[in-house]
Specification:
The protein has 339 residues and is mainly α. The protein is built from 15 helices and four strands. It has one domain: Orthogonal Bundle (Penicillin binding protein transpeptidase fold). It has a two-stranded antiparallel sheet. The chain has a two-stranded parallel ribbon with strand order 3-4. A hairpin with a 6-residue loop joins strand 1 and strand 2.
Length: 339
């Protein structure tokens, strides 16, 4: 019995030591568990915030993307107006031109991109959107620069890509285009990405060049070339193309109304083309030195109905009577008829 008692005492002692060892405070284990719990909470929170953020962005994208007009609408918008042109019986001598009288319309003649000299569209790309061919429809660097400028208290800035400018010119209501708001910029960005997804870069660039306003009632690069240099865009030199490219930014700074500023901006465009790798520095310097002869006809002189041949005005009146209707009173300008 005494042996058993001693054995029992030994077991009891061992159990006590074991319990004491097991129940001994372990501060490092507690700290580790606490850190683990905190990290788990942080990861869960970040995941939740990220998920909510993605859902919010996706919701905003779907909301604005749903406002994008049907593809056919964007394409037919390019045919919404062109100048009516009246020639003599030989078809060689232009007698009179009649521009669309509706607001935000003017002298416009559509030119496919394939007919334009490379330096014409390269000038616009170098100046407005150097990464146009590779970007998703938005100029990320420009947007970030504008964003940080806005955070510092500045006005809402642009950073707009060529595609965004196209969106603004075609889809954004004319009354809203001059407004600088985050809502409008967000809409431009999302719609620009959606347009890039739907259409080729070549078509977007073609539409952009044919829809820009170049001042003096000139819409599109062909009309601008005729207005300022009296020639087709297919005949423009590098120097002339570089002078036209910056006009859409500030249409009043054109070579007819403000030649000195137009000349300075031509130099900026040529330098941008050098930096983009389109031309060499020597080509830019030579183009800048070239003396340009610009037309000096005002809008009233170009479309003066009082000096137009009587037959031309009679023909225009007959075309209006034959094709314009009460339901479509601007048909001849929408279709850009040639008589």
């Amino acid at each position: 019995m005494n042996r058993l008692d001693r054995h029992d005492h030994i077991l009891i002692a061992r159990r006590k030591r074991y319990r004491a060892e097991t129940n001994r405070p372990r501060p490092w284990l507690w700290v580790g568990q606490s850190i683990g719990v905190v990290l788990l909470v942080i990861v869960a929170s970040v995941g939740l915030v990220t998920t909510l953020g993605v859902m919010t962005v996706a919701g905003i994208y779907r909301t604005y993307a749903a406002q994008l007009p049907d593809a056919n609408v964007i394409e037919t918008q390019q045919e919404e107006f062109e100048t009516v042109r009246i020639f003599d019986r030989t078809g060689q001598h232009l007698l009179y031109e009649s521009v669309d009288p509706r607001p935000f319309r003017g002298d416009r003649r559509y030119k496919p991109l394939r007919e334009l000299p490379a330096h014409v569209y390269q000038a616009s790309i170098a100046l407005e959107d150097r990464n146009f061919w590779d970007n998703p429809g938005i100029n990320v660097r420009g947007l970030l620069r504008a964003f940080f400028s806005n955070l510092q208290g500045g006005a809402v800035q642009g950073g707009s890509s060529i595609t965004q400018q196209l969106i603004k010119n075609i889809i954004i209501d004319p009354e809203d285009r001059a407004q600088q708001s985050y809502a409008r910029k967000i809409k431009e960005v999302i719609l620009a990405m959606e347009v890039t997804r739907r259409y080729s870069k070549e078509r977007i660039l073609e539409w952009y060049l044919n829809y820009n306003f170049y001042g003096n009632l000139a819409y599109g690069i062909e009309a601008a070339s005729q207005v300022y240099f009296g020639k087709s865009v297919t005949e423009l030199t590098l120097a002339e193309a570089a002078m036209l490219a910056p006009i859409p930014q500030f249409p009043a700074l054109n070579p007819i109304d403000n030649f000195e500023d137009a000349k300075q901006r031509q130099g900026v465009t040529l330098q941008a083309m050098v930096e983009a790798g389109y031309i060499t520095q020597s080509q830019a310097d030579e183009a800048f030195r070239q003396e340009l002869t610009t037309l000096r006809k005002s809008v009233s002189e170009r479309f003066d109905i009082l000096t137009a041949p009587h037959f031309a005005l009679y023909a225009l009146d007959q075309v209006k009577r034959q094709y314009n209707t009460v339901e479509d009173p601007y048909f001849i300008w929408r279709k850009g008829l040639t008589v």
